[in-house]
């Protein structure tokens, strides 16, 4: 939404028609309603679950342009897909989780996915690769004779919106000894964080394991910044802005854009990013202005417990991903993710 707002200001569009679907049954009627509007130049659908609906409506209205964020319709001349290489950022989250598991004496790392599908496979591939890279790096740094091993708990929850499922899964993972878990399941993560906060409350701790790792937006501020040391962020605003720019400048092309760390399509959270997010959440009413510096202090304290060499190693990993020296596979099919699971079993 922020990208579209900026594009309206920069390129002089008359306005925005914003529609939020409450259920999957709303996708087709909402898209068709926008396509029927004579003065609508571009229809943007955000989320891979809208891809089939966009394909149908784009065929029905060939004179309209469609941007599919997180999806792609290969044969459609009036659809541009904007896909993210979520694996790039997920590799860094996976490496951090693995390092902390080894440093703090845990034998498992966790992740919770939504529904199986191409976008989820991007995350899973990167997370597995990042964990494996960290195991090799840990062996090197510590001078170990053998590469250490960790178990990955990686359920698909079947939801992107049910916090109760997230709480139940996270409680189970904590019971099985995970150092923390990565939320790749949208609103399910609310319940995951509730379970993490409860575990810390029971232990009387405010930093360290169990950790929560955020996704898509900066979630480091949750629970006053105490339990989430890093989030993997997607620049959906960049994708929507680029789509609007193509329309404004009459440079529209079908096909798709692939946006990773090198393309500034995904990135992991930093102090500057958190400070910006805190101000946004204060405006939204999600953070009390009086808690602004409490959030920043708590987050900094949590990160300070992580060894400096680990932050240096994560920087090395990020540099390698950007340069291409470290390969994070872009996995889109069930066959390919099954092959990658076999290559990086983590069991």
Automatic annotation (TrEMBL):
GO cellular component, one term: plasma membrane
Keyword Cytoplasm: no
UniProt xrefs under CDD domains: PBP1_PrnA-like
UniProt keyword Cell inner membrane present: no
Database matches in Gene3D superfamilies: 3.40.50.2300
A Pfam cross-reference name: Bmp
InterPro entries linked: BMP_lipoprotein, PnrA-like
Domain ABC transporter substrate-binding protein PnrA-like, residue spans: 2-277
UniProt keyword terms in alphabetical order: Cell membrane, Lipoprotein, Membrane, Signal
Record's subcellular location: Cell membrane
Location (main, coarse): membrane
PANTHER family in UniProt: ABC TRANSPORTER GUANOSINE-BINDING PROTEIN NUPN, TRANSCRIPTIONAL ACTIVATOR PROTEIN MED
Name of this protein: ABC transporter substrate-binding protein PnrA-like domain-containing protein
Native source organism of the sequence: marine sediment metagenome
Lineage, uppermost ranks: unclassified sequences, metagenomes, ecological metagenomes
